[in-house]
Design goal:
It is a single chain. The protein is mostly beta strands. The chain has six helices and 20 strands. The strands form five sheets. Strands 4, 5, 6, 7, 8, 9 and 10 form a seven-stranded antiparallel sheet that branches. The protein has a six-stranded antiparallel barrel with strand order 11-13-18-17-14-20. Strands 1-2-3 form a three-stranded antiparallel sheet, with no helix packed on it. A hairpin with a 6-residue loop joins β7 and β8.
């Protein structure tokens, strides 16, 4: 398979360095974790690293680091970052220039025609996020995965409200039609409707750890259940697919934060690929997979894992057909962008071979 260029990767974890109070409050990891990995890694520049690079729209922090470094995980060290630099969001804009300071082994940020700055001091601007700054992750790639349920874990199914009936006994519901629902709304009024689909089995234990939900559309509460019973009336706001009796409701999640700083997991992670989104068995660059680790294992938004083709077990014909497992082969990286308790969604990037169900995803070394 073709070796994909990181700088052109749709992964696009951007140059904004996010370690804001909002991220911290939401359980997000910070750049400090990447610093911890970099401190254990020998940071070597590529022998053919350029002297400078002008930032253009579509560039990424990971991609620019990969242009200069053998190991992109060294970016916190070579940028000379410290805690003061990551307390607040700093943005890098198209037109600025990244200089390779060969004498000091650092990357510096400067402006066209100016003298390179001697430490990491990206400019701050009093503008709303996204006005000119390079976006963190292309919304077109993962937006549905951020706003739709997609994964429903076993313990969630029993407690979700469900459609029990339709007006005039219609089999399917479309936009503007009424749905009658039973279940605890927990104060919410806007819901997504889904249908539990393919069971997801842990490649190691073979146990069902969740279901990949089929997203059907959204509904809005029209009339809450009153003294006459426990049935709520909903209106279908939009319908991607027709809804019917038995389909489940989940509250529409808040708008996600799209700016993630890539970082290693807090704890050592040894995961396996559970499924490839779309029902296929192999995946490549910029495709979505699920893994059998989640919040309970220390994963959070922005975690990056190394992908491995899982080595098969073969018979050694030179040793009485003794069964031997071949080594796992590193093939790229996986960016985690949505986590559940025991399952996570990841975007494949920078791969040199196809990713298969059962392959491994581990903490970077």
């Amino acid at each position: 398979m073709k070796k994909f260029s990181t700088i052109a990767s749709i992964f696009a974890v951007s140059l904004p360095l996010m370690a804001t109070d909002a991220l911290a409050a939401g359980g997000q990891a910070t750049t400090a974790q990447a610093q911890a990995v970099a401190s254990r890694t020998k940071c070597e520049f590529l022998p053919d690293a350029p002297d400078k690079h002008e930032v253009v729209r579509g560039d990424t922090l990971w991609g620019i680091s990969a242009m200069f470094l053998k190991n992109p995980w060294c970016w916190p060290v070579v940028w000379g970052m410290n805690q003061e630099d990551i307390k607040n969001p700093h943005w890098i804009y198209p037109g600025q220039i990244v200089y390779f300071d060969r004498v000091n082994g650092r990357l510096r940020l400067g402006n066209p025609g100016g003298i390179p700055k001697v430490k990491w001091t990206p400019r701050s601007r009093d503008r709303g996020l996204g006005d000119d700054a390079i976006p963190a992750i292309p919304a077109s790639v993962i937006e549905p995965f951020l706003s739709q349920p997609l994964i429903v874990e076993n313990n969630e199914l029993a407690s979700t409200p469900r459609i029990i009936g339709t007006k005039e006994g219609r089999v399917n519901l479309g936009q503007g039609e009424k749905a009658y629902v039973r279940g605890d709304l927990d104060g919410s009024t806007s819901f997504q409707v889904f249908r539990p689909g393919t069971p997801l089995r842990d490649p190691e234990t073979k146990a069902i750890i969740g279901y990949e939900a089929v997203y059907l559309g959204t509904v809005k509460l029209d009339k809450e259940a009153g003294d006459e019973g426990d049935v709520h009336t909903f209106l279908v706001v939009n319908s991607k697919e027709e809804m019917s009796v038995g389909d489940r409701l989940m509250p529409i999640p808040p708008s996600p934060i799209l700016n993630y700083a890539p970082h290693p997991p807090i704890d050592e992670v040894d995961a396996r690929v559970v499924s490839v989104y779309g029902g296929v068995t192999v995946a490549g660059q910029s495709q979505i997979v699920t893994i059998n680790r989640g919040k309970d294992d220390g994963l959070n938004l922005g975690t990056v894992l190394t992908l491995y083709n899982y080595g098969p077990t073969i018979e050694d014909k030179t040793d009485n057909n003794r069964k031997v497992k071949l080594p796992d082969e590193a093939i790229g990286n996986l960016f985690i962008f949505r986590v559940f308790s025991n399952i996570s969604y990841g975007l494949i990037m920078q791969v040199t071979d196809s990713v298969k169900v059962g392959d491994a995803a581990r903490s970077p070394k």
